[in-house]
């Protein structure tokens, strides 16, 4: 029966178990992580937490206890220096992390990686919400009065903004109407100019056509006169030739 026999069965005697635990703890503090079986990792976790607690105390007695647990003065000095620099300052426990890797081939032992948790602790949201609630209770009356004042100021500002917006809208409408009238007048002027130009061009074309027709008619009349004179000269020449032949 296991009366008053704490701990896990590691398959070794007492002296072997003690030496194995000391070597595993020393390896963890040296390398910040080790790979071992799950039972051994869980067995050395209290020893690691105890040594870090002694390092947080930092007195001579705690240093001697750590040297007795680890058996290495230089390693104890390094651990105490790291803790003094604030490595675990924001943690009150839970200095190690165990991550499972699966089962080992051969004896099917569950393998894990055990490492020191060095990252800072994330603040809990519950603490923030409780602090915010307590602060809200204390500042509720002040906030209510401030809210009423802010509401009044916001209403006044909104009224002034609306008046300014209405005035600006009216001015914009006036400007748009003026622009529209000016654009309409300019477009009408352009249209009249275009029609006048077209009419003048048509008149010029008609005048040019009439002048061309008159010139062509005059040329045709001159040609007719020349042909008539040539015919008369030919007739006279024929008559003269006949008379000469009769004589």
UniProtKB/TrEMBL annotation:
The keyword Ribonucleoprotein applies. GO terms for molecular function: structural constituent of ribosome. Keywords: Ribonucleoprotein, Ribosomal protein. Signal peptide: none annotated. Residues 123-247 are annotated as: Disordered. GO terms for biological process: translation. It comes from the Bacteria. Residues 207-219 have a biased composition (Low complexity). Residues 146-181, 193-206, 222-247 have a biased composition (Basic and acidic residues). InterPro entries: Ribosomal_bL17 (IPR000456), Ribosomal_bL17_sf (IPR036373). It holds the Pfam family Ribosomal_L17. GO terms for cellular component: cytosolic large ribosomal subunit. Belongs to the bacterial ribosomal protein bL17 family. PANTHER family: LARGE RIBOSOMAL SUBUNIT PROTEIN BL17M, RIBOSOMAL PROTEIN L17. NCBIfam families: L17. This is 50S ribosomal protein L17. The lineage of its organism: Bacteria, Bacillati, Actinomycetota, Coriobacteriia, Eggerthellales.
């Amino acid at each position: 029966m296991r009366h008053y026999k704490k701990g896990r069965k590691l398959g070794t005697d007492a002296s072997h178990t003690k030496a194995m635990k000391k070597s595993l703890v020393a390896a963890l503090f040296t390398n910040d992580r080790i790979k071992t079986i799950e039972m051994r990792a869980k067995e050395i976790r209290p020893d690691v937490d105890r040594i870090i607690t002694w390092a947080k105390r930092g007195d001579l007695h705690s240093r001697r206890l750590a040297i007795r647990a680890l058996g290495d003065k230089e390693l104890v000095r390094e651990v105490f220096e790291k803790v003094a620099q604030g490595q675990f300052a924001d943690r009150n426990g839970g200095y190690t992390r165990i991550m499972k890797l699966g089962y080992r081939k051969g004896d099917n032992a569950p393998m894990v990686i055990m490492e020191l948790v060095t990252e800072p602790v994330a603040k809990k949201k519950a603490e923030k919400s409780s602090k915010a609630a307590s602060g809200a209770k204390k500042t509720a009356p002040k906030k209510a009065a401030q809210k009423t004042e802010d509401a009044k100021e916001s209403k006044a500002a909104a009224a002034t903004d609306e008046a300014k917006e209405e005035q600006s809208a009216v001015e914009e409408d006036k400007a748009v109407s003026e622009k529209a009238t000016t654009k309409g007048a300019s477009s009408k002027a352009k249209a009249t100019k275009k029609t006048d130009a077209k009419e003048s061009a048509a008149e010029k074309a008609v005048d040019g056509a009439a002048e061309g027709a008159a010139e062509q008619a005059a040329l045709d009349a001159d040609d007719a006169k020349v042909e008539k004179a040539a015919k008369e000269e030919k007739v006279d020449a024929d008559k003269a030739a006949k008379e000469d032949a009769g004589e």
